[in-house]
Amino acid sequence: WGLLISTYAFLAITSTGLCLLATISHIFGGNRLAPLANRMVWLSVVCIISAFFVIGMEIENPWRMAIYNVISPNLTSNIWWMGTLYGLAVGFMIVEFWLILTKKYKAALALGVLGALTEVGANTCLGGVFATLPSRPYWYGAQLPVSFLACAFLSGAAAAVIFTHYSCIIRRKCMDSSIHDGIQSAGKVMLLMLILVGVATFWNIVSYFVGGSDVGRTAAEALIRGPLAKNFWVFEVAIGLVAPILLLALTRVRSITAMSSAALMTLVGMFFARYDMVVAGQIVPRFSGVNGLPTYFHYVPSSAEMLVVLGGLGLCGLAFLMGERFFGRVFTGHSEH
Description:
Layout: H1 3-27, H2 34-58, H3 62-71, H4 78-101, H5 105-131, H6 143-171, H7 177-207, H8 214-225, H9 229-250, H10 256-280, H11 303-332
Helix pairs in contact: 1-2, 1-5, 1-6, 1-10, 2-4, 2-6, 2-11, 4-5, 5-6, 6-7, 6-10, 7-9, 7-10, 8-9, 9-10
């Protein structure tokens, strides 16, 4: 597992966050996030389809996965549940978006709730894929499923802020007050989750140095002062956590430009956080300490992996632009929902 798995996790987690925020805003109508909800539904679909594209390039025969997922299910497998639930979530959200287009809002709300529930289940199963591997002490434990859910809210809020801001730039229109209030509310959610994820990251690292196995501690050291230190300190901590918190706090979550910049930095940090998590869990040899084994394995993403990642992110960008082109009125028609 490498860059493609981490990118899949990043996109899938972002999709979960967008779906949850959209559903919450639809259920509790009249809140400030409501003007962003329809766009978040579309972006959630886009992100999970892009995630499927990336993971499809990782799997040797992706069409077999779809076939045997149905004819030979393994109900004790986290991966089976993750794939099945994400597949159901895509179906629910596509139907929900269609119902929004046709102004059948009550039915859309019901589908949105189903989509959110399946997304939460899939997200926790994704965390469980890593958390239930005792042979990988850095992953093993109960923290990852909960951490993934927190990161989902963080990534979803950041994506809602940045894409809504970019939509106004593309249209060259002044942002109305309701959209401004919606972005501000998403920015507050983002600030809260940045603090919570930062605290969780701190204690997650500390826990490896006060107990646990030597392999887990060595993996944590790879982040602190090893081959992953630059990724961890520069991109995950400085750019992804500290800088956005300071930017949002100093501007009191009032500047749209500051919130958009913080959202971009947050998404960059979340991308590297998923990469660091995936690689750190495997970078230490399983039989660490045996003579002749290196302290750390060496991993550098191949050019093919990088191209696939660019393709997945490019698909997100293209679908965002297509959504603004064809569904722009739906995204701004929040008052009718």
